[in-house]
Amino acid sequence: MKNMIKVTTRFARALLPACALLVMLGTAPAAHAQKFPDKPIRLIVPFPPGGGNDILARALAPKLAELLGQPVVIDNRAGAGGNIGTEAAAKAAPDGSTIVIASNQVTINPWLIAKLPFDIERDFAPVAQVASVPMVLAVHPAVAAQNVRELIALAKSGAGKLNHATPGNGTPQHIAFEVFNHAAGVQITHIAYKGTTPAIADLLGGQVQAAIGTMASLEPHIKAGKLRALAVTTAKRSAAMPNLPTIAEAALPGFEVPLWYSILAPAGTPKDVVARLSAEIARTLATPDIRDRLTGQGFEVTYLNAEQMGELIRRDTLRWQRSIKEIGLKLEP
Known about the structure:
The chain has helices at residues 2-35, 52-68, 83-90, 105-108, 148-157, 172-184, 196-205, 215-223, 247-250, 271-285, 288-296, 306-327, and strands spanning 41-45, 72-76, 98-103, 124-132, 135-139, 163-166, 189-192, 210-214, 228-232, 260-266, 300-304. It is of the alpha/beta class.
């Protein structure tokens, strides 16, 4: 009996370090969650002020800061059609202190640019989807087209050179117009700008004749009569402008190019930190005044959690691989 007690005691002593390690491992995420965030959060916007990414980020930041108990600092890192800011987020420390607001451009660009400086599935941890927004096909009032069919006919006639403006190469607005050109059998020339604001300024001034842009950025000018809206790019009409047909209804059956916005963190960000960020984003989006503000600007609040966002990224990446190959479009990095 004494020998048994000695063996049992020795065995128990040998287990103590292992038990302690298990306890530490089991409580590590909880400890991390209690510690996060312990410094300001940098929210990278990979475009200049004024575009959809920026509008959304500035709407969300104050409430998100309140819920997280730390300032949320907007960092506009424009350039290369959004890829400079997105790359900066990919290379940031994976501790939750840096996040990026990214459109579905991140699922399009891998098939456009041969040497993209990041891999959307390898280098990022999805946090949440925050919104989607209809894109609008609009023209300057001087353009002799009252609807989509007339625009296509005008482009085919060659009666005057038609150009379209975008916030940059490889942006969803650019790709939407390339899909339009391909589906309609026309070639309205692409003019790339460094952001939404200068693109719209030249459209308003008549230096370019058309654009596909977010409802958030174009709607005020449409309502003021400074631009003529022809259709939306989504599969369904927008509740914000219900009288405006879809491009599919108006002329090109099956046409659909959505635009959504997500929050991403660097790969390796602890799961409990991602979960905390995602939960506070959901609470932010559920705030009535924020929902009303975004809806009033043409956005649709479409929250998805981290797992759902990851699945959407995988699905959209495959979709754009097929679509870009069909169009035959390639861009220089």
